[in-house]
Amino acid sequence: MCYGLGAVVFAALIASMFKTPNSTIKVLIISWIGLIILSIKSPPSHSRLQAYLFSLNINTAFRYAAKSIAEFMNRDRVLGWLNIFEDAPYMFSCGEAFLMIIFDIFWMVCMMFVFDRVFGQPDFSLRDFFSCYSPANCESDSIDGASAAPLTRRYDRNEIQSISTSSEDTSFPLDSIETDYRRARTEGDINVKGLVKIYSETGETAVAGLTLNAAKGEVTVLLGHNGAGKSTILSAISGIIAPTAGKIRICDCNVQTYRNEIRKIIGLCPQHNPLYEKLTVKEHLWLVHGLKGADRSGYAAEEKYLLEETKLDEKGNEKAMNLSGGMKRKLCVCMALIGKSPVVLLDEPTAGLFN
């Protein structure tokens, strides 16, 4: 059981160092096979120190334990917890090999969290398993703009700060500024301050110091030409990507810290149509409704209302692969709205729609 746990921890260790699942799987398979071969081909240990060093490979420690158990069985002795450290015919006793397996699990767990801290990805972090969601904790939580997302290229803190504040340095004539004081006092469901997104692979700045307050009960629209960063902003707000700097809060909760919980209250319609070709229209709505964890009691009425409003009521049992482009877009909008999400993000929802 400990060896199996060690294999799982080793897989998590490799996963913490790579961005994509394909890279993780390839490196994991090659590394694990290499460690097995190394444990088999490793020269015999002539000292206990060498045995300890070789046992840092969990496969070698497991081989030592197996040989020790085999020696006990060859001598017709019963191996129990009381004699697990006694009469070691091999370099290691079974108990020592067992302790080394536990130690291997421990050091791999430590390195896993170190690598996760350094190479942690925006979509998933091992620290999410140990963060407890509490609305009360959301209010006091904050994210340091410069350390919001680990990057392959390390940007200077002053450089990021200058980008995030550059938009605030622009001066306007006083008579061209109008302040809506009533809106300023309105509770905001989306609060973005100094958002910066720099892609580490290319060094391109997609968003430079955006500050946004989307008030509750209002529709906020982002306007800009192609490539202005609108989709990047929505991806950062929804937690799909991590910002390089800045703070994003939804319903007074930090998006980066409570990413999994935030996604349950967000309805997102991205630029592309994230549909399963083999699922029907109603099955898509039921799936997304369940992922959001919404109340099922009012699902039937909500589904009927959305399908009627988007004129998809006659296509409820039609598979997505048979829908036209406009119908697919309508379905994506319905998926964003289903579950009565408090915050709905629509990225070009009318693209491909004619009526």
From TrEMBL:
Domain ABC transporter: 209-351
Gene3D superfamilies linked to this entry: P-loop containing nucleotide triphosphate hydrolases
Superkingdom in the source lineage: Eukaryota
A GO-annotated cellular component: membrane
PROSITE patterns named in the record: ABC_TRANSPORTER_1 (PS00211)
Molecular function, one GO term: lipid transporter activity
Transmembrane segments: 90-115
Keywords: Membrane, Repeat, Transmembrane, Transmembrane helix, Transport
UniProt cross-references to InterPro entries, sorted A to Z: ABC_transporter-like_ATP-bd, ABC_transporter-like_CS, ABCA, P-loop_NTPase
PANTHER family to which the protein is assigned, alphabetical: ATP-BINDING CASSETTE SUB-FAMILY A MEMBER 2 (PTHR19229:SF36), ATP-BINDING CASSETTE TRANSPORTER SUBFAMILY A ABCA (PTHR19229)
Protein's recorded name: ABC transporter domain-containing protein
